[in-house]
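Progress note, sequence design subtask.
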C-alpha cells in the first residue's frame, strides 16, 4: 500500500508539471509551417482494374534529363492529383529553401533575410551538382561535401559526383563515382562499373510531407558498394516514412531512374536495397511493374504494409484490454501469457522505455497504478503507430502545419490512399481494417493455455477501433521536444469501443477499399519472378518490430502465386553479423549469369551455393538448405535454422488464421456450426453457445474460406504450378 501511495504522490505533481509545460514557445517548425492548403489540379490516375501489373503505363511526357538549375516535374505521371497540404523539407535535406511558386500564402513561406518573399506549395528544388568524398573512420563511413570543384580536383580521396533536385515533388539523389579529371563534366562515368543500386528506405508515413534526403546519408548507407564502383539513386518519395502510397512510389522510382538513364545510359542491371518499408516497397514495385528493378535485396522486410496493419492495429486493443479491461489484470502481468494472444514475442522483466506511462494513465483512469514488469513487441515495436496510421484526427506531433490546416485535414494512411480506396460520406478515407468474427486467443484456448472464461472475456471486451468520424486526437505532452512525447491517453483507449450489453462492438472494414488495395498493388500477392535475397538480423529477443516471420509470409505468397519459390532466398543472421555485402556479391553473380544468355532462367542462373541460410555472429553459416527454416509456418518439423532462431506469429494467426496473412475480412459461420466443425476442439464449447453468440452475433471467422475483400478475378486465385491452370483457394 505504501508503494502505491508513493507512486500517486510522484505522478500527480508530474502530471501538473507536464500540463504547465504545454505553454506555447517560439518554434522553428512553426516559422516554416504550411500556412494554407492549395487546391489540387486534375492529373491522370492509372486505372488498376483488374490488377496494376496488367496495366500499361503511359508514355513519359516530361523531357528528361532535368537541366542543372531547373526543376523536375511537379505532378506525377500517373498517380493522380497532388496531395495538399504538403510540407517542404529541402531545408532538412541541407538544400536550402524551396522555390517560390505562389504569392497567395499557399504552402510554406520562403524567406530572404528573414522576410517572406513568397510561398511554396509544391516544394520544388533546382537540380544541383556537388562533390563528396567517402572514407572510413573506425567502424563507420563518413561522406564529406567539398566546398567547390577546385577542392574536388585536388582531392586524393575517393570522389563522387552528387546530383540532387526534385521529381514528383520529392527530393532525388544520384551518386556517381568519378575521378578528379572528371570534375565539371556532368556525364563522365569512367569509374562506374555499370551496375545501379536503387536505395529504398523505411519508416511509417501517411503522406503530406516531401521527406528528408541528405546526400551524405544516401552515400554512407551504400558506402561499400559506391567504393566498389556502383552508382546509387534514391528519392525521399521511396522512403516509407513519408508515404506508403505504392503507386506514387513506383511512379517516382520510374522517373528517377529515367533521369539516371537519360544521363548515363542503361546499366547492366538495377538492384533494389532497403530495409523495413524499404524492403516491402521493392516487393510491391517488382510485382506491380516492369523496367525499374531487376533484382531485390529486401532487408528486415514485410510483404507489404497494408496486411501488416491487420494484426498491428490489434496491438493497442490488446494492450488496452490487458491494462484496463481484464477481469484478472494481475494474470496478464505475466508477459509470456500475453504472447499466447498477441502472437509476437513478449518477455518478462524486459524494460519499457516509457513504462511510467502505464501508472500515469491508470491513475488518470481511476485504477490502482502499477509499473509494467515486462515488455512485448506490440509495445516496444508498435507503440503509437495505431494513432498515426489509423486516426484521422492525430496528425504530426511536430508543428509542421498551421492550426487551421491541421483542423481541416484528415490525417491517416487511409486518407493518403483515399484517391484510390475511396472516401465515406464524411470525406474520410475508407479503411480495410476489420475484426468482425475474430476469435482472439483461439489457439491458446485449444491448447488449454487459457481458460474458457478468459477466452470469452477477451473476445467480449477487446472491442475495436471506433469509426473514424468518432475518433479524437491523443493527448500528448512534449516538454522534452517532439522526439520524447508523453502520452496522456494510453493505447488510444478513448478511441476504442466500450462494451454495450456486455459486448464491445467490432469494426467492419470496407469491401470496396479491400478490392482497391488488391487491385492497386498495395497488397503483395506474390506475383514476382526476379531474383530476391531477403535478409535480416534475428531481432526477436530485442522485441524489435521487424519479426522474422514476415519473410515467410512473403515466401508463402510467392509460392502460391507462382507454384514455386525458386527465385526467393531467405537469410537470417545473428544480430552481430551484417550479411548485406555478401548479398550484393551473390546478387551480382545471379544477375550477371541471368543476363549472359537468353536461354537462362532465374532458377538456372542462381549460384549453386546460394541457399536459404542462417548465420552465426562471426559470419559463418550455421545451416543452409531447402529445409532449414521449416516450422509451423509450413506445417513441418522445425529445421536447424528455425531451432536456432525461433520465430513467433501474430494475433490473427493465434486467432486461427493462416501464416501468409492476406485475409482482410474473413467469411463467417454461425457459432453452432463452428462447434460442430471442430473449430474449438478438443475444447467442448457447447455449454458456452449463448456467450459466444452474444459476442459474435454475425458468426465467427472461417479461415478455410476466401477473403471477402479479394476481387473476383483469376489473377488473385490462379496457381500456375505445372501450367495446368487449376483454380485454387489462395485466401491463405
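Output:
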Amino acid at each position: 500500500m505504501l508503494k502505491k501511495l508513493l507512486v500517486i504522490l510522484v505522478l500527480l505533481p508530474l502530471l501538473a508539471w507536464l500540463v504547465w509545460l504545454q505553454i506555447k514557445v517560439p518554434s522553428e517548425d512553426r516559422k516554416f509551417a504550411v500556412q494554407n492548403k492549395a487546391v489540387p489540379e486534375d492529373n491522370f490516375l492509372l486505372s488498376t482494374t483488374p490488377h496494376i501489373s496488367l496495366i500499361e503505363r503511359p508514355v513519359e511526357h516530361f523531357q528528361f534529363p532535368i537541366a542543372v538549375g531547373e526543376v523536375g516535374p511537379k505532378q506525377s505521371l500517373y498517380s493522380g492529383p497532388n496531395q495538399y497540404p504538403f510540407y517542404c523539407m529541402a531545408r532538412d535535406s541541407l538544400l536550402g529553401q524551396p522555390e517560390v511558386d505562389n504569392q497567395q500564402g499557399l504552402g510554406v513561406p520562403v524567406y530572404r533575410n528573414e522576410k517572406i518573399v513568397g510561398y511554396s506549395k509544391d516544394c520544388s528544388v533546382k537540380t544541383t551538382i556537388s562533390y563528396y568524398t567517402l572514407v572510413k573512420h573506425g567502424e563507420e563511413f563518413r561522406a564529406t561535401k567539398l566546398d567547390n570543384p577546385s577542392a574536388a580536383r585536388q582531392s586524393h580521396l575517393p570522389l563522387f559526383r552528387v546530383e540532387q533536385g526534385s521529381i514528383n515533388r520529392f527530393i532525388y539523389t544520384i551518386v556517381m563515382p568519378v575521378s578528379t579529371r572528371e570534375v565539371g563534366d556532368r556525364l563522365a562515368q569512367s569509374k562506374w562499373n555499370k551496375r545501379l543500386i536503387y536505395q529504398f528506405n523505411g519508416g511509417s508515413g501517411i503522406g503530406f510531407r516531401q521527406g528528408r534526403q541528405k546526400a551524405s546519408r544516401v552515400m554512407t548507407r551504400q558506402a561499400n558498394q559506391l567504393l566498389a564502383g556502383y552508382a546509387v539513386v534514391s528519392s525521399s518519395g521511396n522512403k516509407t516514412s513519408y508515404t506508403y502510397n505504392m503507386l506514387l512510389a513506383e511512379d517516382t522510382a520510374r522517373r528517377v531512374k529515367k533521369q539516371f538513364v537519360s544521363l548515363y545510359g542503361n546499366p547492366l542491371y538495377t538492384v533494389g536495397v532497403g530495409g523495413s518499408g524499404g524492403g516491402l516497397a521493392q516487393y510491391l514495385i517488382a510485382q506491380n511493374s516492369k523496367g525499374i528493378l531487376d533484382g531485390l535485396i529486401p532487408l528486415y522486410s514485410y510483404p507489404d504494409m497494408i496486411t501488416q496493419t491487420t494484426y498491428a492495429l490489434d496491438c493497442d486493443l490488446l494492450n488496452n484490454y490487458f491494462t484496463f479491461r481484464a477481469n484478472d489484470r494481475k494474470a496478464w502481468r505475466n508477459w509470456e501469457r500475453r504472447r499466447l494472444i498477441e502472437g509476437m514475442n513478449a518477455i518478462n522483466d524486459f524494460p519499457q522505455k516509457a513504462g511510467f506511462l502505464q501508472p500515469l494513465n491508470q491513475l488518470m483512469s481511476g485504477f490502482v497504478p502499477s509499473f509494467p514488469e515486462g515488455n512485448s513487441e506490440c509495445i516496444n515495436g508498435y507503440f503509437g503507430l495505431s494513432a498515426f496510421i489509423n486516426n484521422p484526427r492525430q496528425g504530426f506531433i511536430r508543428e509542421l502545419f498551421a492550426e487551421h490546416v491541421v483542423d481541416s485535414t484528415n490525417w491517416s494512411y487511409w486518407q493518403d490512399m483515399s484517391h484510390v480506396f475511396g472516401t465515406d460520406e464524411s470525406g474520410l478515407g475508407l479503411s480495410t481494417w476489420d475484426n468482425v468474427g475474430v476469435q482472439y486467443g483461439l489457439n491458446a484456448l485449444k491448447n488449454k493455455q487459457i481458460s474458457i472464461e478468459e477466452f470469452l472475456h477477451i473476445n467480449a471486451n477487446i472491442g475495436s477501433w471506433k469509426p473514424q468520424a468518432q475518433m479524437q486526437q491523443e493527448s500528448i505532452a512534449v516538454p522534452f521536444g517532439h522526439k520524447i512525447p508523453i502520452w496522456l491517453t494510453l493505447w488510444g483507449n478513448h478511441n476504442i469501443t466500450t462494451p454495450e450489453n456486455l459486448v464491445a462492438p467490432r469494426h467492419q472494414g470496407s469491401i470496396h477499399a479491400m478490392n482497391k488495395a488488391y487491385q492497386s498493388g498495395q497488397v503483395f500477392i506474390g506475383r514476382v519472378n526476379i531474383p530476391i535475397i531477403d535478409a535480416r538480423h534475428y531481432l526477436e529477443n530485442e522485441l524489435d518490430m521487424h519479426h522474422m516471420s514476415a519473410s515467410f509470409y512473403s515466401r508463402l505468397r510467392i509460392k502460391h502465386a507462382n507454384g514455386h519459390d525458386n527465385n526467393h532466398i531467405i537469410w537470417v543472421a545473428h544480430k552481430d553479423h551484417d550479411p548485406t555485402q555478401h548479398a550484393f556479391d551473390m546478387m551480382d553473380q545471379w544477375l550477371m549469369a541471368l543476363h549472359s544468355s537468353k536461354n537462362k532462367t532465374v532458377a538456372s542462373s542462381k549460384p549453386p551455393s546460394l541457399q536459404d541460410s542462417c548465420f552465426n555472429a562471426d559470419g559463418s553459416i550455421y545451416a543452409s538448405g531447402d529445409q532449414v527454416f521449416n516450422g509451423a509456418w509450413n506445417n513441418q518439423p522445425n529445421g536447424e535454422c528455425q531451432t536456432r532462431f525461433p520465430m513467433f506469429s501474430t494475433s490473427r494467426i493465434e486467432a486461427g488464421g493462416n501464416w501468409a496473412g492476406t485475409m482482410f475480412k474473413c467469411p463467417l459461420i454461425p457459432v453452432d456450426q463452428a462447434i460442430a466443425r471442430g473449430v474449438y476442439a478438443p475444447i467442448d464449447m457447447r455449454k458456452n453457445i449463448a456467450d459466444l453468440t452474444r459476442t459474435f452475433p454475425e458468426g465467427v471467422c472461417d479461415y478455410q474460406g476466401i477473403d471477402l475483400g479479394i476481387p473476383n478475378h483469376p489473377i488473385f486465385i490462379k496457381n500456375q504450378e505445372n501450367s495446368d491452370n487449376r483454380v485454387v483457394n489462395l485466401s491463405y
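Residues 2-20 form the longest helix (19 residues). Work on this subtask will continue into the next period as scheduled.
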